[in-house]
């Protein structure tokens, strides 16, 4: 019997997974705001819900997985205030906001592909769904749970709280929210209550991303895009809504309120949230200056070619993926070089065992070694399945794969023997859990970057030699060839550095 249990953040307990329209499953996950390079904090939700997506597909569900791209760049700290992040970047770099969004969407795809994260079935952009968002705002206004103030539209949290529970998901208490005074923030005086949130904001003159609406030329509030796009592609209520724990409040709490009023129903049956990645126990974030982009992880250095203060070396995409899967998605995960190096070693052990498995053949008759009982090996697969059915417990799956590696190595060393059925069962175990469900590949470890470092050093030495010999034709040719590969070379007083 195969019963999947998953932890529902809303009920705060594990529940049996029963899709609303089995075998179809609708899953919506909040995607990135595309105004900067993806970092480790982006990798965790992407990999967590990739694991869920892969496992549901393995269970033969027909999954429609929707993940949005937030290309209206919602605002520093608070969804309602401050300068739009994408517009700010566009202004600083003299680009169209859509150029910024496109560039970082492409970057996001590139790095998620490297992490072997499957693309969702639908990747919906907020800017491509403005009419749908206006429609939801209008429904909430018509129902009397929102008000227009100075061309902006706000959700009336206090009125909502009279009939519904605002705070049911996050556990926040409304009185505490109301007591929070933020008088110094722009827009507060337009609100009836500090806890009210924007559904539509009137654009100030310098705000470049703007659309027509019945209320003003402006732009949608942050939470409304997920309500509009989730409903459009998955229906008024769907199976799984996921995201990082940092989105519990106000984002997901507000999504529940919006859907409840606009559609008269809870938006989703199961809320799933992955925990955060910390550095020395502290949240990783741009504002804290302790974040590491995925590109920096893969290259082992900063974009300008200099050493990253937080990285001892480069780590491959598969090491990062394995590191994340080694923790249960609801546990915090603390970054350190030691932990990543341990993950790298562990992954290599599994990769080596998987390779060894291809070379093992069943022994010829007459060996006097005790064969491994078939039951012991078939149990590993049962344990893996039980673990996945228990709220996607990937660390237990990995522990069982290590046990399989131990059996394989012991056969390789001639200490035990495996019969043909054993070998087939182990191959199938790796195929299903290592490859299909955990999404791990046999890609090489971080050695590639060491190789590139070595080659680059050699090229720069030759260039230096050419310069010393006043052979500028050769040194220029080397520089031009590197430029064509998007590698920049900088000559400083401490020597030559490079980056890409
Ligand atoms: Zn969202």
Helix content: 40-55%
Shape category: flat
Order of strands, main sheet, comes to 5-4-3-10-11
β-strand number: 16
Supply Rg.
26 Å
Hetero ligands = zinc ion
Main beta sheet? 5 strands, parallel
Short descriptors:
alpha/beta, flat, 16 strands, binds zinc ion, 500 residues
What would your notes on this structure say?
By secondary structure, the protein is an alpha/beta fold. Helices cover 45% and strands 15% of the residues. It is built from 16 helices and 16 strands. Helix 8 (248-263) links the parallel strand 10 (238-244) and strand 11. The structure holds zinc ion. The site of zinc ion has 3 residues, from loops.
SSE order and pairing:
Layout: E1 5-8, E2 13-16, E3 24-29, H1 40-58, E4 62-69, H2 85-93, H3 97-114, E5 122-125, H4 130-142, E6 146-149, E7 152-155, H5 157-163, H6 174-179, E8 197-202, E9 218-220, H7 224-234, E10 238-244, H8 248-263, E11 268-274, E12 277-279, E13 282-283, H9 294-299, H10 317-325, E14 333-335, H11 337-359, H12 374-389, H13 394-412, H14 420-437, H15 447-468, H16 472-484, E15 488-492, E16 495-499
Parallel strand pairs: 3-4, 3-10, 4-5, 10-11, 12-14
Antiparallel strand pairs: 1-2, 6-7, 7-8, 8-9, 12-13, 15-16
Helix pairs in contact: 1-10, 2-3, 4-7, 4-8, 10-11, 11-13, 12-13, 12-14, 13-14, 15-16
Bound molecules: zinc ion (ZN).
The site of zinc ion has 3 residues, from loops.
């Amino acid at each position: 019997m195969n019963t999947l249990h998953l932890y529902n953040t809303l009920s705060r307990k594990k529940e049996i997974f029963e899709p609303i329209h089995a075998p179809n499953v609708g899953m919506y996950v909040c995607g990135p705001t595309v105004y900067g390079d993806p970092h480790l904090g982006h990798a965790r939700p992407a990999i967590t819900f990739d694991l869920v997506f892969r496992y549901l597909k393995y269970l033969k569900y027909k999954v429609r997985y929707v993940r949005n791209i937030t290309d209206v760049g919602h605002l520093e700290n608070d969804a309602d205030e401050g300068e739009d992040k994408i517009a700010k970047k566009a202004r600083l770099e003299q680009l169209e906001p859509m150029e910024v969004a496109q560039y970082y969407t492409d970057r996001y795809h590139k790095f998620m592909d490297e992490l072997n994260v499957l693309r969702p079935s639908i990747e919906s952009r907020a800017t491509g769904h403005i009419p749908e968002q206006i429609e939801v705002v209008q429904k909430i206004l018509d129902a009397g749970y929102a008000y227009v103030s100075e061309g902006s539209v706000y959700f009336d949290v206090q009125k909502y709280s009279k009939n519904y529970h605002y705070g049911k998901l996050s556990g926040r208490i409304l009185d505490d929210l109301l007591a929070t005074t933020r008088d110094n923030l722009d827009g507060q005086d337009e609100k009836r209550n500090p806890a009210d949130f924007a559904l539509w904001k009137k654009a100030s003159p310098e705000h470049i991303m703007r659309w027509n609406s019945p209320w003003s030329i402006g732009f949608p509030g942050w939470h409304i895009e997920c309500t509009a796009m989730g409903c459009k592609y998955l229906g008024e209520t769907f199976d799984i809504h996921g995201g990082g724990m940092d989105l519990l409040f106000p984002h997901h709490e507000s999504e529940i309120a919006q859907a409840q009023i606009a559609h008269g129903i809870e938006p989703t049956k199961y809320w799933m949230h992955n925990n955060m990645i910390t550095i020395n126990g502290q949240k990783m974030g741009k504002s804290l200056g302790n974040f590491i982009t995925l590109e920096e992880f893969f290259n082992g250095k900063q974009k300008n070619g200099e050493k990253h203060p937080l990285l001892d070396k480069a780590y491959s995409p598969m090491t990062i993926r394995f590191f994340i899967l080694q923790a249960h998605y609801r546990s915090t995960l603390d970054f350190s070089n030691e932990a990543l190096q341990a993950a790298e070693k562990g992954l290599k052990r599994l990769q080596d065992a998987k390779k060894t498995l291809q070379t093992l053949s069943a022994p010829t008759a007459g060996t006097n070694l005790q064969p491994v009982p078939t039951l012991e090996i078939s149990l590993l697969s049962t344990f893996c399945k039980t673990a996945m059915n228990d709220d996607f417990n990937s660390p237990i799956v990995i522990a069982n794969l290590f046990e399989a590696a131990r059996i394989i190595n012991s056969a390789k060393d001639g200490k035990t023997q495996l019969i043909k059925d054993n070998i087939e069962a182990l191959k199938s175990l790796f195929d299903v859990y290592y490859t299909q469900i955990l999404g791990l590949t046999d890609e090489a470890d971080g050695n590639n970057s060491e190789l590139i470092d070595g080659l680059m050093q050699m090229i720069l030495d030759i260039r230096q030699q050419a310069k010393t010999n006043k052979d500028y034709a050769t040194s220029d040719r080397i520089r031009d060839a590197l430029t064509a590969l998007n590698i920049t070379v900088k000559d400083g007083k401490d020597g030559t550095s490079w980056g890409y």
